[in-house]
Design brief:
Helix content is 36%, strand content 22%. It is an alpha/beta fold and 175 residues long. The strands form two sheets. Strands 1, 4, 5, 6, 7 and 8 form a six-stranded parallel sheet that branches. Strands 2-3 form a two-stranded antiparallel ribbon. Helix 1 (25-39) crosses helix 6. The chain is globular.
Length: 175
């Protein structure tokens, strides 16, 4: 079986429609993907994009920082690094922040080469769906083989991680 990597950024703290959480919506979604991949017999690793300068837990303060990063087209750094070479499929997850990916996800995408890799984006939002970010990833993951992405409401990720949706989505990829 192919080896997969689940890369994700998730925000804990105050989140819309779910309150203050210890684990972000996208992290719950990512863990469900990992669980499904393992159940299907895949070897899978995870890599969480942890910013070197953490985002504030307060929703309003987080909005201010994220808006500034986007306006200035900043590329926030993250802790650690991962070699993508051993993986045939890379899942990339993130929340939708104001109709875009958090800038830290751009940092990751621009640092790596995806030639010949299956690239499967996934995201959480509270009503805006994927906001065109799957196409953005397709443009940034140069040489990657884009798979259909999966967008999920954060409230659903909190309930059961979208288990049925994830099972169907991963199964349809044929990886």
């Amino acid at each position: 079986m192919a080896k997969a990597l689940v890369v994700y950024f998730s925000h804990a703290g105050e989140n819309p429609n779910v309150g203050i959480v210890q684990e972000g919506n996208t992290a719950l979604f990512a863990k469900n993907i990992i669980e499904q991949l393992k159940a299907d017999g895949h070897e899978v690793d995870e890599f969480e994009l942890k910013p070197t300068s953490p985002y504030p837990e307060s929703y309003n303060e987080c909005i201010l920082k994220a808006t500034e990063e986007r306006t200035m087209q900043e590329r926030p750094d993250y802790e650690g690094e991962i070699d993508l070479e051993p993986y045939s499929t890379i899942f990339i997850g993130y929340p939708i922040w104001w109709s875009d990916m958090p800038m830290i996800v751009y940092t990751f995408l621009e640092k790596h080469t995806f030639t010949g890799k299956n690239v499967a984006p996934f995201c959480t939002s509270e009503g805006s769906g994927e906001s065109g970010t799957f196409g953005v990833i397709g443009n940034l993951a140069v040489g990657g083989i884009m798979q259909e992405g999966l967008a999920m409401p954060g409230t659903l990720a909190r309930q059961d991680g979208g288990k049925k949706q994830v099972q169907y989505w991963v199964g349809q990829m044929g990886i």
